[in-house]
Amino acid sequence: MRKLILYIAASLDGYIARTDGSFDWLEHEAFALEGEDYGYSDFMQTIDTTLMGHSTYKAILGMDMPFPYTDKTNYVFSRSSHEDTEQVQYVNDDPITFVKQLQQQPGKDIWLIGGGQLNTLFFNAGMIDEIILTYVPFVLGKGIPLFAPIATEQRLQVTETQNYKNGFVQLRLSQAGTTGGA
Ligand SMILES: NC(=O)c1ccc[n+]([C@@H]2O[C@H](COP(=O)([O-])OP(=O)(O)OC[C@H]3O[C@@H](n4cnc5c(N)ncnc54)[C@H](OP(=O)(O)O)[C@@H]3O)[C@@H](O)[C@H]2O)c1
What's the rounded Cα separation, in Å, for the pair 174 and 54? Predict the structure, then answer.
């Protein structure tokens, strides 16, 4: 079955964007590492589909660059209806049912881009097969959290860690299927 993978970066205090949605702090000049993409290009070879919450899609559209995932099938979740575009298809159906069906279809793995609301939905349903989380040594104090406060308590298993010279730390985690601090 196609895996659902959350590949994402967060500040040290667990935020994926400032409250206004900006994430320039991810690309602070102090973090520049020549030729390093934190496994992104290899990861992109393994997926053919992306999933985004509507806020994340709008944040991507607001970036000063062309839409970056034109060679993928892109789904945007919203509770209201919108016209599909050349780049994305909007989904109004229940996200859990929709993704379970998607996983039954043939294809490569599926990238859950985010953001926090969508992450939490799939996390609470125990559906995220792998989390590839890059921690950035930057404290924001406030912002949009990686998981919303409605996230259920769960222990995760770390399957791999990688340290980068700029202080980034990448964890690969899986949902261990247990609750509580055990
Ligand atoms: N650091 C990183 O690597 C990274 C990665 C991804 C995203 N981000 C940032 O994360 C921020 C957005 O995160 P977020 O948590 O605010 O929002 P989000 O999860 O991206 O999107 C929330 C929206 O998704 C739709 N939605 C949520 N639950 C739904 C459901 N059950 N059924 C159907 N649609 C549903 C709703 O859209 P409607 O309002 O249209 O109904 C909701 O407003 C952005 O600023 C983005 O830049 C950062």
Answer: 25
Distance between Cα 115 and ligand 1 center (Å):
4
SS3 67: coil
Return the residue whose CA atom lies nearest to atom 8 of ligand 1.
115
Is the Cβ–Cβ distance between 41 and 166 less than 8 Å? no
pLDDT, block means (10 residues), the chain with 182 residues? 97 97 92 96 98 97 94 98 97 97 97 98 97 98 97 95 98 75 42
Whether 118 is in the pocket of ligand 1, judged by its Cβ within 6 Å, is yes
> Side chain identity at 176, as an amino acid letter?
A
**Alpha carbons 52 and 105: distance in angstroms, whole number:** 19
List the 47-53 sheet strands across, edge first.
89-91, 73-77, 47-53, 109-114, 4-11, 130-136, 169-178, 155-163
Which pair of structure tokens corresponds to residue 69? 């995932």
Domains of the chain: 4-178 (3.40.430.10)
